[in-house]
Amino acid sequence: MSTQHKAPLAGIRVIEIGSMYAAPTAGRMLRDFGADVVKIEDPTAGDYARQWEPKHAGLAIGFARLNSGKRSVGIDLRRPEGRDVVRRLIRTADVLIENFRPGRMERWNMSYQELSRENPRLVMTRVSGFGQTGPYRERPGFGTVAETASGYAFLNGWPDTPPTAPPFGFADSIAGISAAFGTTMALYRRSIDGVGSEVDVALYEPLMFIMGDAVLNYTATGRIMQRQGNSSGSASPRGIYQAGDGKWLSIAASNQSIAMRLFDAMGRPDLKTDERYATNEARMANNESLQRIVIDWVRQRPRDEVLAILERHEVVAAPVNDAKDVAEDPHFLERTLVELTNTVFGRAMMPGPVLHVTGYRGPEYNGVPQVGEHTRQVLVDELGMSSEEFSTLAASGVISDR
Predict the structure, then answer these.
(1) Neighbours of 41 (CB within 10 A)
(2) What is the pLDDT of residues 52-62, one digit of tens each?
(3) Could you tell me if 57 and 34 are in contact, meaning their C-beta atoms sit under 8 angstroms apart?
(4) Which positions are annotated as active-site residues?
(5) How far is CA 259 from CA 30, 135, 236, 266, 278, in A?
(6) Using 50, 70 and 90 to split pLDDT, how confident is the model at 5?
(7) What is residue 292's DSSP assignment?
(8) CB crowding 110-136: b at 16 or more within 10 Å, else e
(9) Complete DSSP assignment for 70-100
(10) 251 pLDDT above the threshold of 90
């Protein structure tokens, strides 16, 4: 039996009418575990993420990572005839993923209430900047807005630097993973009561959750957490340190036993009984002086030697890896990275599924669909559209002629 037969979501059909990053991330998560994801794109331009940089040989790297293994169907959703075709597809689906601004689907007569009347088992997962409810629901929102509105950017960086947004789709990715989680919960509930549901994901909410204790800290104590650089603000010593050979590593002595083992590793058992460093509360109060001690110790030897010493003492530490380090690391090669094949990239690697399920090795990532590559296959062969209707819609530009 092939691994695909053991995929947790085998047999689940997903219609993805999302674009850019967040909703396609959710589609990628579901596809990773066996779902058949049919991606609806503009029949001419496709998903705008196809235009994003960086590109290699004309193919957008970010688009390739999120959409390998999906099937592309070119349909113009701006046209009533196009929306009619999509509704027919949705009647055959288990899941619909969309990321239009709230209200757009309703104006198209494609609200959850309307679609679920035609397909009561439908799970409709909706990703938007600020969610389907609340005063800000109609505001547009991309990841950068979520990263600032959630409070993340305020806390990211150093005390003497401006608030900092990440150089990658952080909020979109977290929201996409959360949307996939919500979708699978809805599918599980459907397996019990037979009825679908609507999943509402705002870009900022998952990010606000993972930020930590900022909001609770303020509402409980009145204190506004500030940028800490590489410190957590909750445990010491913790941070990123430069070794004697110029390379960087992280150390996270985030509980008492690890801190004590770190002091032993450093050859400083005296710090264990020093009242300034004996407890986490004391270490936090004297974090600056303790950090100087750790910095001085690390920079006296090359990184590999530091990491070897810390590993012998079971101190939590790791190198600061760049992409080359990750791509050549034996652990990541065995467990995490997968090969993207049959593209203009040649042999290329990327992160695979975000978790592992016993008995399921994961899918292959063989190629990236061209715009509308699977339109005829899905609409004629699977949906049952007549060749005459297909030709008429293709001739008028409603669908791709492929």
Answers:
(1) 29
(2) 999 999 999 99
(3) no
(4) 172
(5) 40, 46, 8, 11, 9
(6) low
(7) H
(8) bebeebbeebeebbbbbbbbbbbeeee
(9) -EEEEB-TTSHHHHHHHHHHHTT-SEEEE-P
(10) yes
Q: What is the 3-state secondary structure (H, E, C) of 309-366?
A: HHHHCCCCEEECCCHHHHHHCHHHHHHCEEEEECCCCCCEEEECCCCCECCECCCCEE
Residue 396's SS3 state is: coil
Indicate the DSSP class of residue 399: B
How is 116-165 classified by DSSP, letter by letter? Answer: HHH-TT-EEEEEESS-SSSTTTTS---HHHHHHHTSHHHHSS-TTS----
State pTM to two decimals: 0.92
CB 96 within 8 A of CB 179: no
Helix 256-265 and helix 303-312: axis angle, to 10°?
A: 120
Helix (H) or strand (E) holding 248: strand 248-252
Pair type for strands 238-242 and 198-202: unpaired
List residues bridging with 124 in a β-sheet. Answer: 96, 198
Q: Which residue has the tokens 């590109």?
A: 55
**Count of C-beta atoms within a 10 Å radius of residue 301:** 15
